Every structure is written in structure tokens, then in C-alpha cells.
């Protein structure tokens, strides 16, 4: 029960792949010498349709190390799908457990031994959880903390300060892959599995090479997927807003009627009426936008299109 498939999604990582692979290989050898993994364990690099020399480097690493496997997707599908592709590959190979983490190694690779120990103690899921967010900008730190609080308010079960650095047992991977939804939000799905879990805390490191490919637009997209995939409360909120606005409208109409009967014209009613109509119209448009998000998700889900295609692997002959 010690076969590890260590999964690293990669997208345009030619600058950091070689330096990172040296640290990954050193950690692999240490885990092997410590008896935490067996010799059938693999390091799996998943190329998410990179446009640079990422795949060529992965192929070279595969030739140098017998435990390195490269999986190349036919096109760029996004981080979550690349992780899913690696997990499915590991599941097909009957790996006892997997660890997923980003190849830039901002997640502390030194705690993987501790994660495996937690697995050997009987945990199917081990989350890597950040102690603090010192390396984040003020904006990213504030928005991340606000997002986690907002998701919990919506009733979404999510592990705070835990991204995609996690260990999953074979049965946990199988359960995860049974989710067929196209709008993948793994941070929300994994806690739903319900298997025994543990946490390992670590300090997130600064990126050493290259630049992050997880820009603000991608983070917003992932956050939106999480909200619309796991909670219908925004739709319920619209109904509550409708009741509130209707009540205010009736009250407003009564006030205007009373002022008219009392011949009070100290202010222009039309300006206030215009402001109210504008506000109400804006609320309707926001509501339609939220409905559009959900309908868009439904449209994608009902098509049941394949999540990705594997173009080739380094094991192909």
C-alpha cells in the first residue's frame, strides 16, 4: 500500500521545470529511502497544452528517470482538468495513493513525508493547509479570506487555506472521478467525499522561477465555478430581494400619496422616483446575470462533453 503517483500539472513551465524537477527527484529518493513509498511509485507531469518547451523537457526527464511519466493533453483545458487527468491516469495504474501539487513548488515539498504518514495512519484525504499568507499581496490575501468566508455563508463545505496540494487514497480518487460534472471545483468536491481526513500545515514559499499563470481572471472564474456549482443560495437571495423591493415600493407609494394629499412639495418626487426605478432596474439586471450563470452551467453539463483528451504519454512507443 505504498505506491505513490505524484502529480504535477504544468502549463508553460519551461523556466521552472528543470530546477523544480531536481527538488522533486531528491524528495522522491528520500521518501523511497525512508520506506514511505515503494519503487513502483511515479512522478507524473501533466502538460496542459503548453505552448513553450514544457513537453520537450518532460520527455527528456522521462528518458533520464525511469520513474518519470509525462501525460500530454491535446489542448489547454485548465488547471483543474489537468489535475483530473493526472488522477485518472494514476487510478488506472492502481496507485495506492496520489499527491497533487503545482510544479512551481510554492507548496512546501518537505511536508509530503508527513502527509504520507497521515495516510498510513488511516486517512484517505490529507489536505495541505497554509499556516499564513505572508507571500501573498494584500489584495490577494484579503480577497482569499473574504472568499472562504463567503463560501461558508453559502453553505459550501470547503477547507480554508487549502488549494490543490493534497493526498488522496485510491478509493478517494475513485470516488472523486465518479463526479461527472464539467464545471470542476475540486476544493469543493473533495470535502464531500466524507472519508477520514487530516491536515498538514506548511508555509507557502515564494515562486523562484517564471511567473504565475493563475491570473486574476482565472481566479475569479474558479471562484465563480465554486459558488455556482455548490450553492443555489444566490437564486434564493434574488427572491428575498424581490419581496423586499416590492415591500419598499408599496411603502414608497403610500408616502408619495400622503405627501400629495397634504400638498407637500418641498422636494421633487420625480427625482426620487427616477432613482428608485434605476435601482430596481439594476437589481433586475444583476438577477438576470446570476440566472444566466446558472443556466450557462446547466447548458454545459447537459452536453456531457469529454473533459479532455490525452494526446500521448512518455510511455507510448
Helix content: 40-55%
The main sheet comes to: 8 strands, mixed
Shape by Cα distribution: elongated
In the CATH hierarchy, the third-tier topology is known as Spore Coat Polysaccharide Biosynthesis Protein SpsA, Chain A
User: What is the overall number of helices?
Assistant: 10
Distance between the termini: 29 Å
Backbone structural class: alpha/beta
* CATH homologous group name: Spore Coat Polysaccharide Biosynthesis Protein SpsA, Chain A
Uncertain residue segments: none
Radius of gyration: 25 Å
Summarize the structure.
This protein has helices at residues 14-33, 54-64, 79-92, 112-120, 138-153, 170-177, 186-189, 216-230, 233-261, 269-303; strands at residues 4-10, 42-47, 68-73, 97-100, 125-130, 166-169, 197-202, 310-313. With 317 residues, it is α/β, with parallel strands linked by helices. It has one domain: Spore Coat Polysaccharide Biosynthesis Protein SpsA, Chain A.
Provide an overview of this structure.
The chain is of the alpha/beta class and 317 residues long. It has a single domain (4-230, 305-313), classed as Spore Coat Polysaccharide Biosynthesis Protein SpsA, Chain A (Alpha-Beta Complex), CATH 3.90.550. It contains ten helices and eight strands. The protein has helices spanning 14-33, 54-64, 79-92, 112-120, 138-153, 170-177, 186-189, 216-230, 233-261, 269-303, and strands spanning 4-10, 42-47, 68-73, 97-100, 125-130, 166-169, 197-202, 310-313. Helix 1 (14-33) runs parallel beside helix 2, helix 3 (79-92) packs across helix 6 and helix 9 packs antiparallel against helix 10. It starts with a strand and ends with a strand.
